[in-house]
Amino acid sequence: MREENQSSTLEFILLGVTGQQEQEDFFFVLFLFIYPTTLIGNMLIILAIHSDIRIHNPMYFFLANLSLVDIFFSSVTIPKMLANHLLGSKSITFGGCLTQMHFMIALANTDSYILAAMAYDRAVAISRPLHYTTIVTLKSCVLLVAGSWMVGIANSLPHTLLTASLSFCGNHDVANFYCDIASLLKLSCSDIHFNVKMMYLGVGVFSVPLLCIIISYVWVFSTVLRVPSTKGVLKAFSTCGSHLTVVSLYYGTVMGTYFCPLMKYSLKDAVLTVMYIAMTPMLNPFVYSLRNRDMKAALRKLFSKRISS
Ligand SMILES: *[C@@H]1O[C@H](CO)[C@@H](O)[C@H](O)[C@H]1NC(C)=O
């Protein structure tokens, strides 16, 4: 009973990216630029893909889904950060905090599983070109995408429920600009051993796609090297290059942020977190549209249609 009372009125303080006022102002301006760019960039990708019948194929459906996840992902934390900065407030309710944490973990997982589905799709296209249309069917794509969303929820709900049942006594200062699980666990005065174990299990589930991506690329490169035609190599690089760029950006920053979660929070971690949360979703559409001829054509078509109508 007391616990329930506690959690309904509980407020947390988001200390910010670094906690230093000048740096907070800098990050505010940075986010003010990044957030609309992310929304517009990703929405354009989705619109372009859906309006161009020539690229209605699995690779672009996955890409559109990735853009959708990126839009949600940045909307979980950035608007709250911007609003708090404008209002001169640092507070967030316990419910808001858990909501942020829940969707952050869920969407990060979905993102990561969709990246794996994309790698698998490319690997089949390059290594089994003749069987591609029978292996990667519309049905299997829908299954992969639905599975990615499901894993996201399945790998975040337990953490959310476990964190919701913790007690928070003294300090309510979250050393970040959003509620992340590691900061919340550190603030709790309950026994968090089980929570930490579950968190590492969660990181494990989250990392499975990385293994799949590595295997897919080993498969791609072994195929390309076995048939060493310049054209084949170029084709492989042009279709995989963008994906590989996004994957390295994504996992590079995630590894930096997640693999030292309970250690002291430094400016370097703060910058890595910002990279991961704000920059990666913003850069995804650019990486894909600037390097990909079909994507560029689809965007051009989208714009010319708007202008002529
Ligand atoms: C996500 O993928 C599914 C299955 O490939 C597709 O039907 C759907 O349109 C995609 N979603 C978006 C937003 O493009």
Write the layout of secondary structure elements.
Layout: H1 2-9, E1 11-14, H2 21-51, H3 58-87, E2 91-93, H4 94-127, H5 132-135, H6 138-154, H7 157-164, E3 173-174, H8 181-187, H9 193-226, H10 230-258, H11 267-291, H12 293-308
Parallel strand pairs: 1-3
Antiparallel strand pairs: 1-2
Helix pairs in contact: 2-3, 2-11, 2-12, 3-4, 3-11, 4-6, 4-7, 4-9, 4-10, 7-9, 9-10, 10-11, 11-12
Residues 46, 61, 64-65, 68, 141-142, 145 line the site of 2-acetamido-2-deoxy-beta-D-glucopyranose (NAG).
What do these coordinates show?
The chain has helices at residues 2-9, 21-51, 58-87, 94-127, 132-135, 138-154, 157-164, 181-187, 193-226, 230-258, 267-291, 293-308; strands at residues 11-14, 91-93, 173-174. The protein has 309 residues and is mainly α. It has a single domain, classed as Rhopdopsin 7-helix transmembrane proteins (Up-down Bundle), CATH 1.20.1070. Strands 2-1-3 form a three-stranded mixed β-sheet. The longest helix has 34 residues, at 94-127. The chain is globular. The relative contact order is 0.15. Bound molecules: 2-acetamido-2-deoxy-beta-D-glucopyranose (NAG). Residues 46, 61, 64-65, 68, 141-142, 145 line the site of 2-acetamido-2-deoxy-beta-D-glucopyranose.
Question: What oligomeric assembly is this protein in?
Answer: single chain
Helicity level, as a percent range?
A: over 70%
- Total strands: 3
Overall residue-averaged pLDDT value: 85
Spell out which ligands are present. Answer: 2-acetamido-2-deoxy-beta-D-glucopyranose
- Order of helices and strands, N to C? HEHHEHHHHEHHHHH
Low-confidence region ranges: 1-5
CATH structural architecture: Up-down Bundle
Envelope shape: globular
| CATH domain class name | Mainly Alpha
Which band does the percent of strand residues land in?
A: under 5%
Rg over C-alpha atoms, rounded to the nearest angstrom: 21 Å
- What is the name of the CATH topology? Rhopdopsin 7-helix transmembrane proteins
What is the domain total for the residues?
A: 1
- N-to-C CA distance: 61 Å
Instruction: Tell me the structural class.
Output: mainly alpha
Number of helices: 12
Described by strand count, sense and barrel closure, the largest sheet is: 3 strands, mixed
